[in-house]
Amino acid sequence: MTIRGTTTDPCAVRAHDLGKTYSVRGVKGGVRALDGLDIAVERGIVFGLLGPNGAGKSTAVKVLTTLTRPDRGSAEVEGADVLRNPGRVRRLIGVVAQRSGSDPRATGRENLILQARMHGMGGHAARTRATELLDRFDLTEVADRLVKTYSGGTQRRLDVALGLVHRPAVLFLDEPTTGLDPEARAAMWTEIQRLASGDGLTVVLTTHYLEEADRLAQRLAIVDHGHVVAGGTPDELKGELRGDAVHLELASGSVPAEVRAVLEALPSVREVRVAGRGVSARSDNGAAAVPAVLAALERAGMPAAAVTVARPSLDDVFLRYTGRRYTPDNGQDTPATPGTRPSGDVADTDPTVRQEAAK
Amino acid sequence: MTTAPLTAPASRKLAMPRLLADTWFLTGRRLHALARQPAVIVGNLVQPAIWLFLFGSLFRRVVDIPGFGGGSYLGYLVPGVIAMNAMNASMWAGVGMIEEIDRGTLNRFLTSPVSRVALMTSGVADQAVTTALQSVAILLLGLLGGAHYPGGIGGCAVVVAAGVLLGTVFGALSNAMGMTLKQREAIIGFNVLLMLPLTFLSSAFMPSTLMPHWMRVITACNPLDWAVRAGRSALATGTDWGSVAARGGGLLALAVVCIAISVATFRSYQKSV
After folding, report:
1. What's the confidence (pLDDT) of residue B6?
2. Is residue B163 part of a domain?
């Protein structure tokens, strides 16, 4: 075991070759949630784990927050090993899980005070800290109401406050805006940006919203099938894609595979990929390529129903590295090319939900 | 680089005060929630009254059976109803545990440095408070109905303590089931299956001298019967303190074992989560 001083390592979180398979009744060999996941998170940044539902993001967070143990691999938070020294890790981290975790039958203030006391704070310090956080998260008005009466956005703000009670070094935010309305989501984004800029806090954020990752994360790891398929800053990732994305929605009579053959013969487009009823390609000048593309498809008798040209987005990054279009609500979407993995072999939903789904 | 957040985490305390403090906070949380539901508290007190009234009326004539030994049936019944009520109330603790799992509250606690043992002891400690109050209520109702407790305050304290220990046994087992099975249906099925047999395979309503031999053998192994006998003996004249201590000690040992089992279920939970 290497003892790494917290001051010499610029990384607040490291994970190496994490693997985890859940045994699920009726699934031979179990469900592989993590398959060689590696990440290194620099201190003081917002680090985004981006991927569809079932990619393994939540399982990675569960390992890093000592909630579950990996089958293989190792991970450290601020130099503390999550397997050998979970007690120390727990004092260093704040966790805002996907599901609220606040006690609905207590008030917001009581929730915060209890959390503080569980982190070993004294009574007076706990109450002071609770008041401070209630104020900071705009919860003062509802502080002494039961949490079960809170709206979704208010509950989420309390969840984040609960994660910050003991002034952690690293805050894990697992899908912080899932289920929030657009207004509450925007407010949460502002809050997360504020956290990262003000407190020198390291934030590890998982999300399946491309826009969220693009906006909040200074560095990103795109996770698919339990491992990182691409990493870098959002701009670096998008920069790897030259030119515009041309997306075609095919008319009902058109055969995607034949459309691909037609497009591959055109000099103005490249990297042609099929995803379900859609075909995507890249072009140095998308607007100029569209007429040639449409004309070629007409000639082949394979017309398109719709065509869009877009500047590169994380969506395209995802397509490029996984061969699938990004559909946040369904990670197991149509495989783009023959030979991609069968769907359904990865899940990071939590087991209670999974069991219900399996019934 | 700012080091401020790193210096803040609280100092480590000794394990034992930590366990007690965590149990105190977590139990307080549960009792606080209970205190906000007066209807539940009233229900908790009414239910044992119904037990006492129903069984007291139903089996009133049992005392006339040769071999029973005569006396007041109500006085005989009180420790039985206390034990039955303690078991019945505590067996459902696991359903609350599943709620905490579903809600994510348990995971929040598990990612904090809170003592794992305290998570389980608090889950039975709040039940112990409820059970103690209910047991006192049953004793008072019995008194109103004309029962006598020659064992006095000391005897009453033993009855309450036996009920609390029995409740702890079943509460801890129920929590362990909640943690491993994570299904309400499993707990409901298990409780429905066990509740009546465990109640009637004891001397709660009928002295074991009137039972067939095979029933007597099972009854002797039934922790519910230990609680009933210890309580009844402590309430009676000429208490056999040796047998009270033996049964009470048995209950205490079993309660500790059951809590240990429930704490051990965190391991399996950690694998499946």
Report:
1. 38
2. yes
Say what the pTM is.
0.81
**Structural domain contains residue B32:** no
Distance (Å) from the C-alpha of residue A199 to the closest C-alpha of chain B? 8
- Please report how many Cα atoms fall inside a 13 Å half-sphere around the Cα of residue A189, on the Cβ side: 17
Whether residue A355 contacts residue A247, with contact meaning beta carbons closer than 8 Å, is answered with no
Q: What is the per-residue pLDDT across B159-196, written as a single tens digit (0 to 9) for each? A: 999 999 999 999 999 999 999 999 999 999 999 999 88
The pLDDT-based confidence of A336 (bands split at 50, 70, 90) is very low
Q: Which residue of B has its CA nearest to A61?
A: B111
Q: Where are the domains of chain A?
A: 11-236, 242-311
Q: Is B104 on the interface with A (CB under 8 A)?
A: yes
Looking at every residue in chain B, the average pLDDT score rounds to 89
Q: What single-letter DSSP state applies at residue A146?
A: B
Query: Do residues B169 and B128 make contact, with C-beta atoms less than 8 angstroms apart?
Result: no
Given the candidates 3.30.70.100, 3.30.420.40, 3.30.365.10, 3.60.10.10, the CATH classification of the domain at A242-311 is 3.30.70.100
Q: What local confidence, expressed as pLDDT, does residue B73 receive?
A: 87
Count of domains for chain B: 1
Contact of B4 with chain A, judged by CB distance below 8 Å, is answered with yes
Q: State the Cα–Cα distance between residues B13 and B26, nearest whole angstrom.
A: 17
Res A352: pLDDT:
37
Q: Is A200 on the interface with B (CB under 8 A)?
A: yes
Answer yes or no: do A167 and B2 touch at CB < 8 A: no
CB contact under 8 A, B113 and A87: yes
The span from the CA of A184 to the CA of B205, in Å, is: 60
User: What is the domain extent for residue B249?
Assistant: 40-272
B30: in domain:
no
Strand order of the sheet with strand A278-283? A270-275, A278-283, A244-250, A304-310
> Looking at domain A11-236, does it have CATH number 3.40.50.300?
yes
Taking the C-alpha atoms of residue A326 and residue B267, their distance in angstroms, rounded to an integer, is 36
pLDDT in tens, B31-43: 999 999 889 888 8
The three-class DSSP label of residue A342 is coil
Quick one: pLDDT band at residue B15, thresholds 50, 70, 90?
A: low
**Which residue in B24, B99, B112, B184 has the most chain A C-beta atoms within 10 A of its own C-beta, making it the best mutation to test that interface?**
B112
> Which of B107, B113, B273 has its CB closest to that of A120?
B113
* Residue B7 domain flag: no
Task: Please report which confidence band the pLDDT of residue B14 belongs to, taking 50, 70 and 90 as the band edges.
Answer: low
Q: Does B268 touch chain A (CB under 8 A)?
A: no
